[in-house]
Every structure is written in C-alpha cells, then in structure tokens.
Amino acid sequence: MAIAIWWARRDLRLADNQALHEAMHAAETVLPVFILDLALLSTFAASEKRLAFLFGGLRALDADLRTRGSRLIVRRGDPASELARLVSEAGVTAVCAEEDVWPYARSRDAAVAAAVPLHLTSGLTVHPSDVVRKADGGPYTVFTPFSRAWKALPQPRRIDILPAPARFVAPPLDLGSLPIPYAPALPPSVPFPPGELEATHRLDTFVLGPSSSVQRYADDRNRMDLDCTSRLSPYLRFGMISARQCAAAAQEAAVVASDEASHKGAATWLNELIWREFYMAILYHFPNVLQEAFRPELRAIPWSNDPTQFAAWCEGRTGYTVVDAAMRQLVETGWMHNRARMIVASFLVKDLLIDWRWGERFFMQHLIDGDPAANNGGWQWTAGVGTDAAPYFRVFNPTLQAAKFDPDGAYVRRWAPELAHVPAKHIHAPWLMPLDVQRQAGCVIGQDYPAPIVAHDAARDRVLAAYKTK
After folding, report:
1. Are strands 94-98 and 118-121 parallel, antiparallel or unpaired?
2. Contacts from 291-295 at CB under 8 Å and sequence distance 24+?
C-alpha cells in the first residue's frame, strides 16, 4: 500500500487543502506530519501569543484528524532530516506540501527536495505568486495593474472549494510522534480561538446573512471603534482557512448583494485580499525587501533612532492617545486594527524619525497574524520606501486620524483607561485641556498620562528634510 506524507506548514486545515488533496491522490495512506522546525521556533518564541495560537491550531487539527481515523504526527528538528527519517521508516513514496514565498521557506524546501521526493502545490494564495505577471513576463510592482491582472484570471467559486476528507487510512501504530508542545492558553483578552472550525465560522458570519459586516465594510473598515473587519488575518496566516475560501466568499457576497453599498463592501474586502497576494508576489520576486527598502534611493535616510522614544512607542506612552491605545492593544492581544497599524507606523517613522525596520521587527514579535510579506509590505508602504508606497511626504497627523476614525474616543478609552473620563472634545489632544478640566477628569497631563514626546508639526518638517537629503 502506497504511503504519502502531507507535510503541514501554513495550511492547518482539512478543507480546500491542495497539498493534502495531492497526497491523497498519490497514495492510499496519508501521514499528516508537522515538523517543529528549530530554526522557526526560535523566531516564533519571540511571540508567546503566536506560539499559543499555532499550538492550539495543531491541537484542533489533530482532533479533526482523529475523528476521521487519523492523527497528526509531530517531529522536532531539521525538516530535511526528519522527513528523510520518516520516508525511510514508513516507506513513503511522496511528500506533499504547500509552497511558500518566504526566503527561508524556499531555501528549506530546496534542502528537503534534495533529500526526499517533495511535491509542492499552490494554496498559500489564490493565484501562485509567479503567475500574475505583466505582458513582458516581468513582475508587477504597482498594485492597481496587479489587481486588474489578478482579477482577469479564473476566480474560485464556492463549488470549487475542496471538501475535507471524510476518512483517512490510519497511520501505522508504531510510527512515533512527539506530543504537541505546551503553551499557555491565550488569555480572554485575545479574541482568536485557534482552529479551522472557528475560522470557517468567522468567514460565514462576516460575509453571510442580512446583517453581515461585509455589507458595511467599505464605509466602516477604517473605524477603530467599530467591529467591522473580518478578524480572519491570524487564520489566514496559519492557513486555518484558505485564501481561495475567502476570495470565493467575497465574490459570492458581491453577486448576491442587495444594494450598492453591500456590493461595494464585498468588493472592497476582496481588494484587501488582493493586497495580501500583491505583497506575497513582491516578496517572491524581491526577497531583499526583508533587509532593505524596495526603493534604492531611499535606503540611506538619516534616521534619528532615539531608543528612549522607541521605548515610549513600544510601551504606549507617547502622549498621543490613538498611538498609545493601539500599541497597548497590540501588546495585550497580539492584534491591531489595520488603520491603527498605519497610524502607529507613520508616527514611528515620520514623527519620531525611527527606522521602519525597528517597527517591522516589533510587530513581528507581537502580532499573532505576523506574516513576513504583509508586515514588510505594510511598513514599507507607510514609510514611503516600498513598492507602490504612500508618498514620503504623506505624514499622518495622529490627532486628526483619531478624530476621524475614533470620533467619540471609544477605542482610545478602551485601551488607555486613564483617559476614561476625558471629555470627547479633548480625548485626542488631552494636553490642550485646561488644568481644571484635567483634574476633573482625573487625568493630569505629565502625571496621570504623558505629555506628547514630540510636537507633530516640527516632526513633520524634520522628516521631510531628512527624506529630501537621503
């Protein structure tokens, strides 16, 4: 009886899993395998919440497999060595895995392919990162034409989604497996129960029904005080749901939309999914972006890199309420609203003149959904140094951004409780409150809450001068 390995990596799901599907076509018996890669564990270890989410997802996957007559086989070590050992132990004829674009993953897979019969499938994105190309064969470096070309390709429909296998042939009983590592459970403040079942439920809730959030997504997605986003990014990051499932749901929601606003909401969400695909393609074609700015002319900006100001940013004590609220949300929950990500990134780079790579690294240390491609693309976009980036002279005013996207201060008050009683008209610039109002609100600036660590207007002039003299 032929035996194949499904090597799970960033595809911790049974439905719409092309690597698993390939393995089941290759052999009667499929061994679901996860390798605890020591090189990656040292990276994951920087984020306890990401580890907890990953290991929780592995437990959920193992439980799903056991209801279908199988189990997850866990090994620890170098993937090439561990897979070669498994191939020898079980007489495996094929190892099937989902292709990844991360430079480390590509070099790892090359080493594995030299040791075992490795078959890579698509699945990380809707369309493989080397498929969406210009007419001359080159990669796109501007989003809008990339998006047009992406949409011109055949699109997945719900009927195209691969079902989860109903049953597996049980793996050999003598095939050894390590226990899934223990990690402290995610605290109640982290709103991301791991697993494919939760991911599927979130997708259905977001796109289906008469009051689904996707209907209001175009208008409300930037509101930090509203719960109008899908919150699927951690599940996409670890493949607890597929990009194809999300894209198919978005396009179905656009087709069945009852009005123009609902149609626009679904189309806008699809566009956000395409941004993810765009950044994956950029990393695939230009792996150097993980070390340096995409734009060569902006690789020598004279950064200030003040460690004291960086610490204030990390700890949410800059004196700018929306920045502080967002950074505290990140550290406590492992997630941050996308508009808040842009605001805090702009503040670090443009107001504090700190290298965008410092912020990129801090995000990867804390975000449950921290993805090398999307995180890097977002930081380079905000810093104005990346592909199709915001102009370097676009400097977010954190006070105006907060007033627009958290108009009553609900978001700020939730994550910066010392501001709970500050009147709405002062919530985003509390340093302008008269002293008697500060005392009435129980928030004396410089005592109960920090004064701004930088003056925005002066900081804007400084960063524009720095970029011009790069």
Report:
1. parallel
2. 293/356, 293/380, 293/383, 293/385, 293/386, 294/141, 294/380, 294/385, 294/386, 294/387, 294/389, 295/385, 295/386, 295/387, 295/389
Q: Architecture of 3-124 per CATH?
A: 3-Layer(aba) Sandwich (3.40)
Give the angle 126-131-132 at the CA atoms, nearest 5°. Answer: 85
Residue carrying the six token digits 């920090």: 450
| 44 Cβ contact partners less than 8 Å away, ≥ 6 residues apart | 50, 51, 54
Catalytic residues: 272, 275, 303, 338, 356, 379
The whole-angstrom distance between residue 417's C-alpha and the CA centroid of its chain comes to 27
How far apart CA 333 and CA 82 sit, in angstroms, is 34
CA-based nearest residue to 8, from 32, 25, 36, 37: 32
| Residue 288 backbone phi and psi in degrees, to 5 | -65, -15
CATH of 125-161+195-285, one of 1.10.10.10, 1.25.40.80, 3.40.50.720, 1.20.1530.20: 1.25.40.80
Q: How far apart are CA 389 and CA 379, in angstroms?
A: 9
Tens-place pLDDT, residues 139-161: 999 999 999 999 999 999 999 99
Distance CA 205, CA 249 (A): 11
Q: With 70 as the cut, is the pLDDT of residue 264 above it?
A: yes
| Domain boundaries 296-468, corresponding CATH code | 1.10.579.10
CA 160/CA 182 separation, integer angstroms: 36
Q: How confident is the model over 166-185, as a mean pLDDT? A: 91
CA 130, distance to chain mean position in Å, is 21
Tell me the C-alpha distance between 126 and 107, whole Å.
Answer: 22
- What type of residue sits at position 6? W
d(CA 330, CA 342): 13
